[in-house]
Specification:
Distance between the termini: 33 Å
Helix content: over 70%
Number of helices: 8
Largest sheet: none
Structural class: mainly alpha
Strand content: under 5%
Shape: rod-shaped
Radius of gyration: 33 Å
Order of helices and strands: HHHHHHHH
């Protein structure tokens, strides 16, 4: 998650280089552009500054959505811990109950009885396989009469009570698994939002950075154009030194 957050923070810094360049140098660039484009005077109500500010606002909206989407995904992932812990606890309880029933039946009636109740072999550790095995044992405990004589007189087992104890734990595990799956679906939604926001930022950044580079050059601000130029690193969402050290506004 830290690496993902850094990729977002880098894009915030890269965007800030663009927006700060517009904020600090926009007026002088606009004046130079109007002079170059309209040597005889700008048309009425024509303001290059408004266009430059709109570009900056679009860049800011794009990176704000990316930041919000990243935060939403991080928050969603942070919610996953408790449901997963509940699932693991429910799985452990069901497995322990299966092992306990196996031990009880084997101790009271002997190991040969275990296969009659689906308890021979290794107890599954995977949640889905464990539920399947437990349901089989529960059904057999309810439907197969326990006619074998106990190895010790006066000792008996209530199959229905054992079946009820299994069902309660199976239901608990199924509920816990459902909660985990719901969290996974919600995390997928926030991940898709973040991926979409990243793709949008990539397009917006490239378009605005290319536009500003050309406009700054047209205005005779070559040094400023170089500072906002969309380099290969910036296109990949990686900062240049200017982005980290203050950007175009301070140069």
């Amino acid at each position: 998650m830290a690496d993902v957050s850094k990729l977002v923070s880098d894009r915030v810094a890269i965007t800030r280089t663009l927006t700060s360049a517009i904020s600090v140098h926009g007026n002088e660039v606009a004046a130079a552009l109007e002079k170059a484009l309209f040597p005889d005077g700008s048309p009425p109500d024509f303001q290059v500054t408004v266009f430059l500010q709109a570009l900056g606002a679009l860049a800011q909206r794009s990176v704000d959505e990316l930041s919000a989407a990243n935060q939403a995904h991080a928050t969603e992932l942070a919610d996953d811990g408790e449901p997963r812990a509940a699932r693991d606890s429910a799985k452990d309880e069901l497995r322990a109950r299966m092992i306990g029933i196996r031990s009880t039946l084997s101790g009271v009636y002997g190991a040969p009885l275990l296969s009659a109740y689906g308890l021979s072999g290794e107890t599954p550790s995977d949640a889905e396989h464990l539920i399947e095995a437990a349901c089989t044992t529960e059904r057999l405990l309810r439907n197969r009469p326990l006619v074998e004589a106990p190895k010790q007189e006066g000792v008996s087992v209530d199959p229905k009570a054992l079946a009820d104890s299994l069902k309660a734990r199976v239901d608990a595990l199924r509920t816990a698994l459902g909660d985990v799956r719901r969290e996974e679906r919600e995390a997928q939604v926030t991940l898709q939002r973040r991926n979409a926001a990243t793709a949008t930022w990539n397009g917006v950044y490239q378009g605005i950075a290319d536009s500003l580079t050309g406009l700054f050059e047209l205005a005779g601000k070559g040094e400023l154009a170089d500072r906002v130029r969309p380099t290969a690193r910036r296109r990949a969402g990686l900062t240049e030194a200017e982005d980290v050290e203050g950007g175009a506004a301070e140069k």
